[in-house]
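sorry for the late reply, my laptop died twice this morning and i had to redo everyting from scratch. anyway the thing you sent over, i finally got around to it. pasting the sequence first so we're on the same page, its 559 residues, then the predicted structure underneath. double check i copied it right bc i was rushing
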Amino acid sequence: MSWRKQGALSFGHVQDQTGKIQLFLRRNLVALTDKTTGNLGYTEMNLLDLGDLVEATGKVMRTERGEISILVEEFRLLTKALRPLPDQWSGLKDRELVLRKRYLDVLLDPVVQERFAAISKMVAAIREFLNGKGFLEFTTPVIQPQYGGGTAKPFKTHVNALGVDMYLAISHELYLKRLVAAGYDKVYTVGRYFRNEGIDRSHHPEFSMVETMTAYENYEYNMNLVEEMFRHVAVRAFGKTQFHVRGHLIDFANPWKRVGMADAVQEKTGTDFRVLNTVDEANAVLEKLGVHERQNSIGEALVAAFEAVVEPTLVEPTLVYGHPVEISPLAKPMAQDPRFVERFEIFIAGMECGDNWSEQNDPVRLLETWKRSYRKEDRDSGDFHALDFDFIEALEYGLPPTTGIGPGLERMAMIFTEQENIDDVIFFPLMRPSVSAFNAAVYGIETEEETVGDAAFSVVDFQAQLEKGRLKPGSEVQVDAGATYWPDASGQQVSGFSGRVKIRGLAGFDTVTVALASQEWAEPKPKAIAKGFFDAAVRTQIVAGLESRMGGAKVKVGN
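ok and here's the structure:
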């Protein structure tokens, strides 16, 4: 968008989602102002501002400099912009404004506009792929009487028309299985998911997934399906197979690696968790790995070891299968070793990108598994699978052997658009409501408490302002911490970290961001140990100072 006037000649650029083109206006060619047609004459062009929506009619030609242009004969002002656009050359630099006013960021930056257009094409390519494989797309409920299909803290709502509390979907899996029970052999949904948990660089409370269910197949079929789908999307929507993901060059044309979880842990640690006899033995192995949180079973200890020493090293696309049955209540046990299930996860550049399994279709065993972990008083905690008797009844009518996949669309978008923050692939990220002082004055909004919005400090400045009483914690303070762990040369361990925290609950501020003091080590450490150092830094540099001024109240710390 641009506009310049040179006497009897004017030049401007207009743009839409297909691109931009130059307007070339001659005073003697442009029709006069006419309120009946809405035409704006040349002498009234000084009423225009950047950002106005206009319509130009004329002949396509080339200027003396060779630029394709429209020689304008009629010019209409469609919508007047009441606010000036930010500077086009520098764009939006404030991260907060970028996220809150994405529409401005897209208007000013064609790279951002193309990124979100590419994400739309990605979703279309996924649908094209599944439809071509004979899948049928169904819409499944977002408002559900009983959340299920996973373990996550749900959002709760109330349906006035029915007079009952319900939940926003944490998964659509159980409804897709009902569709299979109804006789549809290949089904999928592109759905919205809501999990009332943390926000960080790769997690968001509201997100999208494509979930499928296929009858008469097992998890090995889905290994092939998901690998083929990623390759199809790469070529169809982005026209290439190589992408830079979190500092690594990933080529989706190459076959994906497949490895059992227990084998992967044994290769990294020398310990085969399958031959351990007691939980104490398993926890002793974890202690040696620097994982100090005690686990309740050998299977859970295996997962903790995997997350600490294997997961960060999975750079190339890798399918990890054979999860412990303790953490997989909806998956079918393996025939050769029922301690493990027919389940696999997708890992790309150290990031988990989907969870998939062969479905447990035995209603008796499934209900027994659910009942063992169910606690009525904690039913909305998200720590275990809720009891869904309506679903159990559907299984009792018979569910064929079934398998499903569920890759997250935002994680896929991060990979294919080469972004490292999930907020950069979500057009409308979830943020705390905020009204600027200017808008409050314009719209006559009365705010309950005057705030100065957000602020950012170094850890030294934060501690100094806290000591001087300029930063005052309220009765409830939330600290959300995030770290960037720097891999060593081998990519298997961590040589240091940089961290930051976001603090909510300080009087006069919406959010305060604090950059922690970075740490570097001469001797690299496993990620689990590095995380312990990071947690300790958050506690000593941030939390301790806040709690000392909260009269015995405790800070809520999240990751």
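The chain has a mean pLDDT of 90.
thats about all i looked at so far, will dig more tmrw
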